[in-house]
Amino acid sequence: MLKYLFTKRFFMSTLGVFILFVTGCFLYMHHIDKQTQQEVERTTEQINKREAAQKQGEKASVEKTGQGGHSHGDGTGHGESTPVEQPLFVDDLKPVPPVPAVTDTGEYKVPINWDELSQEERTRIWNEAYRAKWGDEPSRNGEYRHIYDKKGRIRRHYENKALLTDYETRIGFAPPPNVLQQYQQLQAEYRSAEDAGDTLKTESLLAVMQKLVYNYQGVLPARPYSYATYGNSFSPEDGIPHKEEATRELYQLMGIEHLFEFYERQFFNNNQ
Q1: Contact, 159 vs 143, CB < 8 A?
Q2: Rounded CA gap, 152 and 145, in Å?
Q3: Among 208, 217, 216, 173, which residue's Cα sits nearest to residue 187?
Q4: What is the C-alpha to C-alpha distance for residues 68 and 61, in angstroms, rounded to an integer?
């Protein structure tokens, strides 16, 4: 009997504590919601007052300065004034005939009566058409021309110089300059270890170099190469320096000029 009374009292006490806890949480949440709602209403009221004051100030400014449009007694009116963009130069005021569109064959879509144009206008139209086709300025003295290489790139071809216009591509070791320097240092250490007969060191260095080659793959030019000449042609002997310069230019165009010596130097040295 006594045990039953203690058990019942413990249960009732626990239930009472639980009810007080739930009631307290509910009252606290209600207080927070009410406080938040009051804060939102207060903020909204401040924003509305600020916007109303701003509109009132703009209205007073328009009435004072006369901007924003005005009306006449006959009921007509003018809208808001628009600022007029002034020309930078006096020449901008002269009417300039539009540049006619050019077809792929170089013909103008709109026929032009060249006899009615001044030499200055003819030159301007021709230059604009040239820029539209090649994306570059025409040569003023004929020192270069523009051509497409076999990859569809627009190339500037200088007179009396070779231009590498056709080449293959391959995926190979294409490290950035700092990694290339590291690789060449490893190569030198590898050769020294190999000459000394240090098999353990050569195997260790070879593993590091192979990892670099695996991690730094990229697009590289590959032979056979085809070259074009503009102006005087070259003899086989004289053409080697021009071809070397053109090949270096291709590496530069591809963003890998630092790899030219690594891949091409031996070939050009052997063909001097």
Answers
A1: yes
A2: 16
A3: 208
A4: 10
Does the global pTM surpass 0.70? no
Q: Residue 160 pairs with which residues in a beta bridge?
A: none
The pLDDT value recorded for residue 26 is 63
DSSP class of residue 254?
A: T
DSSP-derived secondary structure for 196-208: TT-HHHHHHHHHH
> 119 φ, ψ to 5°?
-60, -35
Render pLDDT for 205-231 as a digit per residue (tens, 0 to 9): 999 999 999 999 999 999 889 888 887
The two tokens of residue 80 are 């808001």
175, 219 contact by CB (below 8 A): no
Residues in the chain, pLDDT under 50: 1-6, 61-97
Distance CA 150, CA 180 (A): 29
The residue type of 133 is K
Chain-centroid distance, C-alpha 120: 37
Q: pLDDT tens, 163-187?
A: 898 999 999 999 999 999 999 999 9
